[in-house]
Amino acid sequence: MGLFGSSKIDSDELQQCLAYWEAQNKVTAFQTKEADLYNNAMVKYGNSISQNPSAASEACKAADRLSQAATEVLRRHNEIKNIPAAALAVHSAWRATFFANEAWTYATAAAIEAMSRGMSPNTAYVQQLVKEYQKAWRRAQDEDKKFIKRLRVNEEDIRRITRATMPDVADDWQPQPSDGRVAEILDQVKKDLAKDNESRIVLLKDKEWSQIDGDTCRVTDFTPLGSVVDSKGKVRAMDMTTPYASITIENRKLGKNITGYITHKIDFRHLWAAFRERALREDEEVIIFWTTKNYKRFIVGSPMMPKLLVWVCPKGAFEIITDNTYKPELAGKARADAKRPIIEWKPDVME
Hints:
The protein has helices at residues 11-45, 53-78, 88-116, 123-151, 155-164, 181-198, 206-209, 265-277, 317-322, 332-339; strands at 202-203, 217-224, 228-229, 235-236, 245-251, 255-262, 284-290, 308-314, 343-345. By secondary structure, the protein is of the alpha+beta class. It folds into 2 domains: 11-197; 202-345, no CATH class. It has a 7-stranded mixed β-sheet with strand order 1-6-5-2-7-8-9. Helix 3 (88-116) packs across helix 6.
């Protein structure tokens, strides 16, 4: 049975998990409180947006607050530190949910603003984002249940954490003034739509990855999907079917915000080393090369083989490698050093 099966949690890890659960629940409690404020406003003003300027103004303010709250939810979630191994799957699921939540709230704010101006909102796009959010939320709920079941917490722990994570009346968070944010919201939604279209590119199987065989890719996000590397350096998979991780990459050929899935444990192990064990610095970035063309002599590539070369490079290496006109003042050794890997990982089967 894998890490998230029947393996036991010792007392120290249990306390870490309970602390994590409390921190996570505080974030979701804040999100719920803000969603309730929005829903109450929509019940009061939602049906009069097109006819009543005062109602339209109040609805716009409520939607604007909700979108800002969604960004605040992500910020608070990102501040949760020291995530125990047993909580990685549920943490990843909630992170995906909060990203999806932010996308639909911004789109909703733009749609309500459009309605207030007598324009036709892009309801199909909003509905699509709502469905994606609901799907992510259901998955997070499922992971939450698995997490709590595995902890085997008693009723007193549940009551204590429930009390501690009730919406905090002392929470003084307030949104930025809405004046001047309409254009910003509309621009953001346009960017989100472009990003959404780009992110439709998903690389899972070799035939999909082969589009960029040997190309330089910058990794902007690394999200384990329940898998971890334990203290002995061994990869512990969530199950036999789920990819080890997802990554977001940028590539000159395919664009930005491409989702790639990591299905070989050696590739996952090397990405884990780059992002988790080494602690990537602000002046560094991760570059990868997916390839089937770099195996040692007499080794035949197959879908079962690892395929990633992983580099940690100085920030900006991606531009220097892929664009000869970038920073022309850098030349000779200085330019070579600016794109040379600081550290690299490659499978033993590769040259």
